[in-house]
Specification:
The strands form 2 sheets. A two-stranded antiparallel ribbon has the order 1-2. It has a two-stranded antiparallel sheet with strand order 3-4. About 65% of the residues lie in helices and about 5% in strands. The chain folds into 2 domains: about 70 residues, no CATH class; about 260 residues, no CATH class. With about 350 residues, it is mainly α. A hairpin with a 2-residue loop joins strand 1 and strand 2. The protein starts with a helix and ends with a helix.
Length: about 350
């Protein structure tokens, strides 16, 4: 292959970094790079090639920013309100029922369950500020153990109300709960209230997942007591039963993670295929995926045989780039459909 063909092939490949809508600009920049190479010799190919790729990536970033700026953010957040509130109530139901074994309820669980329930009811009735208040109460309560204000230590000095199957679901709930606050504040200020029948249907739909969870989790299994052998000189060893230790992780949380994963995957597929008709729903799915990207990766690598070192250091954070890229792609698709 001649030197000229090599130069043309490499510059043509570099020009592919431009987005489809800017391919004409990419060809112009490619031709300028070829002229510079013809004038100065093949040695400048090492400079012109990366410069051409960089120009294409900057063009892609500009197009992506335009598409995202034109996306229906407010409509997407408003569409999230009831589903996200229902998911948060179901999450705390899975954390509460198998663990709590005494009455009256502690203040923390009253605030978590009460705030989540208020958010669901208010979201069904489209009450803007009450939904935001319920979500904010849930967020502050769930975050309080990490500020040393309660919750206790459940495993390896990890403060949390709900340590799930391989992941701290209390911490994982914080970003989605903040997203719920933003979604509530995105509801129209003076929106017409849904008629009674519609509001009742929305409320029943919002409470259905948590109701099914309660029915499935009750009766909760009794926690096993701890046992200790006592040795005394001249006596046979005796076994002493002590109080039950906090569970290192709540067994039913694995079921919750599977259900949530299936629901999230179904939402991604459905909203991707219907992005042209309902761009707000596609954007909403992308926002949820962004909020759970890291815990999603952390749980996923426990189901897939991976080297042990993947669990350590920055590797889970690097793997979280994959769902983030998928989320950005879905949000760009929603913006592109909205603009089109």
């Amino acid at each position: 292959m001649s030197r000229r063909r090599v130069t043309d092939a490499l510059t043509a490949l570099a020009a592919r970094s431009f987005p489809r809508s800017r391919r004409a600009d990419g060809r112009v920049v490619r031709d300028c790079a070829r002229e510079a190479i013809d004038a100065s010799g093949p040695r400048v190919l090492a400079r012109e090639g990366p410069a051409l790729v960089g120009a294409g990536l900057r063009a892609r970033a500009g197009v992506a920013a335009t598409e995202l700026s034109q996306a229906p953010w407010r409509d997407a957040l408003a569409a999230l309100t009831l589903p996200l509130a229902a998911a948060m109530l179901t999450l705390w139901t899975f954390g509460f029922v198998p663990r709590y074994d005494h009455w009256p309820l502690g203040v923390g669980w009253v605030l978590l369950l009460g705030g989540s329930l208020v958010a669901v009811i208010a979201a069904a009735l489209r009450w803007r500020w009450l939904t935001a208040i319920g979500a904010a109460v849930t967020f502050v309560t769930a975050a309080s153990p990490y500020a040393g204000l309660g919750g206790g230590v459940v495993r390896a000095d990890t403060p949390s109300f709900f340590y799930g199957y391989g992941v701290d679901l209390g911490a994982a709930s914080l970003l989605p709960t903040l997203l719920l606050v933003a979604a509530a504040l995105s509801l129209p200020r003076s929106a017409a209230r849904p008629i009674r029948l519609v509001a009742g249907a929305r409320l029943a739909l919002g409470l259905l997942p948590a109701t099914v969870a309660v029915l499935g989790l009750l009766p909760a299994p009794e926690r096993e007591p701890t046992y200790m052998h006592l040795y005394r000189p001249g006596h046979e060893p005796t076994v002493i039963a002590g109080s039950a230790d906090p569970w290192p992780w709540i067994a039913p949380s694995r079921t919750f993670l599977v259900i949530f994963g299936i629901a999230l995957a179904a939402a991604m597929i459905v909203t991707w295929t219907r992005a042209r008709i309902h761009p707000a729903a596609a954007l909403a799915s992308g926002l949820v995926l962004v909020s759970v990207a890291y815990p999603l990766v952390w749980v996923s690598i426990q189901y897939v045989p991976v080297p042990y070192w993947v669990y350590n250091g920055p590797h889970p954070w690097l793997l979280a780039i994959l769902p983030l890229l998928l989320a950005v792609t879905l949000m760009r698709r929603a913006g592109r459909m909205q603009h089109g």
